[in-house]
Structure formats: structure tokens, C-alpha cells
């Protein structure tokens, strides 16, 4: 099931017209947990690094930890979503979004939601 999850996201990423190339690695840590991580390069020179720690709970995949780190073509932070518990005063704790000069609350978007946000950035929406 986790294999399907990772390969589905890999196919989606590869199908996007603004992706130049991408890579990912799926590491099975136990029969019920895996790490899915990789990167993607975009047509404007920007880059995404991603990481998800996944755990099977019955027939459901839980994303226990995540990080989506999006950088400009100059290597500057555009945004990063993660759920590291280091901003306890944010109402969406532990989920949050880093921007260049601030941190704000977040609903903890999934991989495809992040790619849609990057598409909006690339299109200037």
C-alpha cells in the first residue's frame, strides 16, 4: 500500500509540465513504516525537497512527519511546510508554514496540495 502511495505521487510529479526532472526514494523501515523522500527541479530553476514518514494503521496510511522545502532559483526559501513541534504557540501546532521572514499556521497540506501551490507560484497566481 505504501509502495502504491509513493509511486502514485512519483507518476503525478512526472506528469506535471513544469517539472524538468525529479527523483525519489522509498525506504521501508519496518513492515508498517517507510520514508518517502526526494526532490524536483522546475522550469524556472526552483527546486522542491520533500520528506514524509509514513506508517500503516490498519488499511490507512498515516503521514506522521513531513517536510516540503521549496527554494527559488537562487536557493532562497520560498516556503517550507513541516510538522516539527518547535512552534507551540501557533494555533495549528505542530503544523506550520515557514516563509522568508515569518512562520504562520498551516493545515498541513499533502504532497499534491504543495505541488499545486508551487504551480500557482510559477504561474504568478
Q: How does this structure look, described?
A:
There is one protein chain. The chain is 22% helix and 46% strand. The termini are far apart. The protein has helices at residues 2-15, 111-123, and strands spanning 19-30, 33-42, 47-57, 60-71, 77-82, 96-98, 103-105. The chain has one domain (2-123). It is built from 2 helices and 7 strands, in the order αβββββββα. The protein is an alpha+beta fold. A 7-stranded antiparallel beta sheet has the order 1-2-3-4-5-6-7, with helices on one face. Strand 4 and strand 5 (77-82) form a beta hairpin.
Short characterization:
This protein is α+β, with helices and mostly antiparallel strands. It has helices at 2-15, 111-123, and strands at 19-30, 33-42, 47-57, 60-71, 77-82, 96-98, 103-105. The longest helix has 14 residues, at 2-15.
Amino acid at each position: 500500500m505504501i509502495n502504491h502511495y509513493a509511486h502514485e505521487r512519483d507518476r503525478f510529479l512526472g506528469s506535471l509540465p513544469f517539472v524538468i526532472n525529479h527523483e525519489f526514494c522509498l525506504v521501508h523501515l519496518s513492515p508498517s513504516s517507510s520514508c518517502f523522500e526526494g526532490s524536483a527541479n522546475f522550469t524556472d530553476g526552483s527546486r522542491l525537497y520533500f520528506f514524509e514518514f509514513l506508517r500503516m494503521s490498519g488499511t490507512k496510511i498515516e503521514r506522521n512527519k513531513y517536510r516540503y522545502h521549496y527554494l527559488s532559483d537562487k536557493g532562497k526559501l520560498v516556503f517550507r511546510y513541516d510538522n516539527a513541534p518547535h512552534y507551540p504557540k501557533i494555533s495549528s501546532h505542530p503544523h506550520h508554514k515557514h516563509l522568508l521572514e515569518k512562520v504562520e499556521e498551516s493545515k498541513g497540506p499533502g504532497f499534491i496540495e504543495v505541488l499545486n501551490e508551487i504551480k500557482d507560484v510559477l504561474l504568478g497566481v
